[in-house]
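TODO from last week: model ABC3 transporter permease C-terminal domain-containing protein.
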Amino acid sequence: MSGLPAIVDGLRGDWRDRASAENRLLPQSRISGPMPWVIGIMIGLTVVATASGLALRNTARAASADVSGGVTVQIVHGAPAERDRQARAALGVLGKTPGVGSVRLVPQQELDALVEPWLGTRAGDDVNDLPVPALIDLRLEGNADPARVEALRARLRPVAPAARVDAQASWLAPVFEAIAALQWLAGGLIALLAFATIATVLLASRNALGNHRSTIEIVHMLGATDAQIARIFQRSMAVDAAAGGIGGLLLGVAVTGLLGSQFAALGSGMMTAGGLGALDWLTICCIPVGGVLLAVLTARLSVLGALRRML
């Protein structure tokens, strides 16, 4: 209460000197207090969650666009000679089919590279002795919907009865479902972090009001309105949130860059396609601004509500 006369004299002399009034009413050092650090951690986690959700969205979009018109034809036959004959016949029919953009028989070298990690083939092994189907990579003009896939099966059945026709998108359906689930998880985490930020600001605002209750009562009797008192608290909260937001953004960007480099080292096409674009980074940079606005609005509403009950 030793600073109370100075507060009263300052507010009575000139209410326009709001910054001075704020420093007298809220003497706690902002950067050394816990609020900027708490908000910084919240913003950092939100940045990482948002970046992860955006990267997953980009990955799903790129993969979906890449396989939307893709069809794989497998010629599954135990006799290598008959398998090769049906593969050549199917290749000829598919090359004359309307709506087919490109068709390619996958070379034996590529098949050997595909099965080597699973079957352990080595130089000198007779791959023809292994039950490896012949593969035809097919690209349609447009999406490979079930009706078009069934039409391809009907055209191939007379010349290649051992052919199995599958849309590539159907193979990746579980992957797309998992990516969608992870996106929902990232969104839920962002919502929880926003709720935690609101709860933290509420507790800090009510604690500050309780510590300065006597001062606030006297200032209020001198003519200060609830809005003027709330403005002091929300300005202090804005400074704390801005300091924490900048630190949290730098921390989140650093973690995001580290994770991105780790996934890029995998050399996967899907991981490369999941990189963040300019608009994604702009969205991430707006997170601290949203955090500051959320903290200021929460502080204002909580202080006004508490003042109505207090005074």
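Done. The longest strand covers residues 134-140.
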